[in-house]
Amino acid sequence: MNDFERLALRAAISIREAMLVDPPNQELDLPQTDWNRLQRLLRQKQLAQDHEWRMAERIINTRLIFTMERLATDLRQRTRDLEQSIKSRSTPADLRLLYEELIALPNEFSEVSIDLRHGILRVVTEEITLEDITLGRFDIVYNWTSEGPGPSYDIHALDPAPSNANSDFVHPHISDGILCEGEAKSGIEAALAQGRFCDFFLIVANTLNTYNDDSAYVTLKEWYGTPCLDCGTSCSDDDLTLCSGCEDPYCHQCCDCCRNCHDSLCGSCLQSCEECSTPHCRDCLNTCNECNHDFCSHCLTDGYCEACYETLSETDPELEEEDNHYETTNPQQISTPPTPAETASP
Amino acid sequence: MKILYINNDGGGFADYISIEPETTISHFVDQRLKHGLATDYLIRVNRQPVSSDYTLQEGDRVSLTPTKIEGARGALGQSHGCRETEGDLLAPAGR
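Predict the joint structure of the above. Result:
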């Protein structure tokens, strides 16, 4: 027996002792919230039927189906949990099995360590790469003395490569060291309850090696940040600007500001003045009464663009007159009459 | 003859089952994985990898562990990783 095998034997004895201790009685609670919701929805459905509110009835039916399915899944899971709990209490793990599980770990993982003092079993995964994104190695730490209500294991990134979008996440399915187990939940519970530690670590490692786009904390598409909708460059939230028009995220390079109100806008929401070509938001442009093209306020005169204004001035003397009147009354263009002092001066 | 069969897919049950003598591991896996591919599983006999023509022996421990297990889908009690679907489902009708 080598050093590791001796340590594994002592750990197996300690684990078996921990497993023999009766877990605190857990109250069996029922999914009351969903049940109450179902009853409320049924009342709503009846009301909708009585008043012949077809659209409301259709929406309520969809909600009923969703809640019923969720309740059914929840009850199935609670049934499995109860069965597992009864089974694990009635069949304490065999010491030989525990020992064999522990000494099999080095065959599956390059790094395995046992901390007898703290009751910790630890393995290190190989480097994990999901969809060409390297997430590095992970440390899976199982604590056989853990008595808390949460999971008895946690996971840490050894070569953390956190998401640029949110640096709290080092893996799409890990938050604060806790794996969102998904399909692995039942397998993990069964393996731990039966003392099959090698299976437990393999299931966790294989879950880490799998990516589920539908329920990731941060999707791999957004791992390097949110892509700018225009150029596609991934940016952190600080480097993104929300367009005031469509409210979609764009990088600073793909946004410009309206020269009048200074709102940030994407290329699609910005419009140029037909005359001077300066970018403006839709609200800050006005339509020429004649040609219906859009112009900034500086390029319109009495609601007409320069070209239309000139054309109309030639054909409409009143407009011409108005123009002359404007010219003569515009304070910027009227030269100040000389003061008596000025005229009197030699 | 009887062997211990551990299926780590789904519920992760472990049970003693009867098989025909002279059954090879590849034949056994094919029988068990009617809708799956053997390449998608980590196959161990007595916690060791074996060749596909290995003939199972009385009392062998066979475990199949999927190499791809999706985190978070259908998880209960771990809602912080799972996106709510009801809102998505009802969005078109409700808004």
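The mean pLDDT of chain B is 76.
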